[in-house]
């Protein structure tokens, strides 16, 4: 029995959802078979291939990474001989933080994961004309977020840009995130699919916009209404603080900056209050300044 569930959206496009509720999108083009995101590893991808075995499809697979977060790219290694497409910053970001994420979340892998970078990158847009499939840069959730538009059936895969009830804020430019979400609101798609929330409606995009605006304005937010996501809000606030200090630390350490050591400074930093995290980071900043002055 397969523990992957399939939602058929059109004769050629379907959502495949794993037991942890994370989805990937499959588009059976006439020339290529497109797979948006690769879940947690090779074992998950074998399940996708089993599913594909029951459908007639072009042999050649094209992989798309909606962004470089670990829960969307660990299955890339199953397709190292295929085209793996991502935004240019997706390749950079995965190169920089891939090992850190693999260490931090090692218990989540499905099969043996080797970090495999996108081998084809784009800047604003990339179109497979004959298959009517388009990849569009849409920064916000992360610097490298992109969407996949099935133009033929008007289906848009948004990755983690929209999430119920709130998105993860993993990029300091919330202004760009808001632009992207406004763009999605008017995007000519009949169906939108989120990697963690399945088929979504525009009201959820509006709710995500309201949340991000409130965070941006420093408003106090009652996270009890977020249910299982109540800790995501604190994580978001603390990630923003970490980003802010990361910039300063990079400026001080220059080429000596090490992503893994900086982000491993405070394991489970989402569990700290924002005040405590700021105090810890200020101390760290003072220490590295001291070391620099003694050099
Ligand atoms: Zn995700």
Write up this protein.
The structure is a single chain. It is built from eight helices and 13 strands. It is of the alpha/beta class and 295 residues long. It has a seven-stranded mixed beta sheet. Strands 8-9-10-11-12-13 form a six-stranded mixed beta sheet. α4 runs antiparallel to α5 (202-216) and α6 packs parallel to α8 (274-293). The mean pLDDT is 96. It binds zinc ion. Zinc ion (ZN) binds next to α2.
CATH architecture of the largest domain: 4-Layer Sandwich
CATH topology of the largest domain: Metallo-beta-lactamase, Chain A
CATH superfamily of the largest domain: Ribonuclease Z/Hydroxyacylglutathione hydrolase-like
Bound compounds, each kind once, are:
zinc ion
Through-space gap between termini: 62 Å
Q: How many strands in all?
A: 13
Rg over CA atoms, rounded to whole Å, is 20 Å
InterPro entries: Metallo-B-lactamas (IPR001279), NDM-1-like (IPR050855), RibonucZ/Hydroxyglut_hydro (IPR036866)
Domain Metallo-beta-lactamase: 21-196
Keywords: Hydrolase
Protein name: MBL fold metallo-hydrolase
Helix-strand layout with pairing:
Elements: E1 5-8, E2 13-17, E3 23-28, E4 33-36, H1 42-53, E5 61-64, H2 70-73, E6 83-87, H3 88-104, E7 120-122, E8 125-128, E9 133-137, E10 146-150, E11 155-159, H4 174-185, E12 191-194, E13 198-200, H5 202-216, H6 230-253, H7 259-263, H8 274-293
Parallel strand pairs: 4-5, 5-6, 6-7, 11-12
Antiparallel strand pairs: 1-2, 2-3, 3-4, 8-9, 9-10, 10-11, 12-13
Helix pairs in contact: 4-5, 6-8
The structure holds zinc ion.
């Amino acid at each position: 029995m397969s523990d992957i569930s399939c939602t058929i959206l059109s004769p050629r496009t379907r959502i495949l959802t794993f037991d942890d509720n994370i989805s990937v999108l499959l588009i059976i083009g006439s020339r290529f078979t497109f797979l948006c995101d690769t879940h947690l590893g090779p074992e998950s991808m074998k399940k996708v291939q089993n599913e594909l075995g029951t459908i007639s499809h072009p042999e050649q697979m094209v992989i798309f990474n909606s962004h470089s977060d670990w829960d969307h790219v660990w299955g890339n290694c199953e397709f190292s001989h295929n085209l793996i497409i991502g935004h240019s910053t997706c390749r950079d970001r995965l190169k920089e933080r891939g090992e850190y994420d693999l260490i931090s979340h090692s218990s989540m892998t499905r099969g043996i994961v080797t970090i495999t970078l996108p081998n084809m990158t784009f800047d604003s847009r990339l179109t497979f004309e004959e298959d009517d499939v388009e990849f569009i840069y849409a920064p916000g959730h992360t610097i490298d977020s992109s969407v996949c538009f099935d133009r033929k059936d008007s289906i848009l895969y948004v990755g983690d840009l929209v999430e119920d009830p709130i998105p993860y804020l993993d990029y300091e430019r919330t202004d760009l995130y808001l632009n992207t979400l406004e763009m999605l609101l008017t995007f000519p798609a009949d169906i939108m699919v989120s990697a963690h929330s399945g088929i979504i409606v525009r009201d959820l995009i509006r709710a995500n916009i309201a949340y991000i605006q409130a965070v941006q304005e420093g408003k106090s937010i009652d996270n009890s209404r977020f249910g299982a996501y109540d800790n995501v809000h604190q994580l978001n606030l603390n990630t923003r603080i970490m980003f802010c200090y990361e910039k300063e630390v990079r400026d001080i350490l220059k080429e000596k900056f090490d992503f893994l050591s900086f982000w491993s400074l405070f394991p489970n930093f989402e569990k700290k209050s924002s005040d405590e995290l700021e105090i810890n980071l200020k101390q760290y900043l003072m220490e590295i300044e001291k070391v620099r002055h003694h050099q």
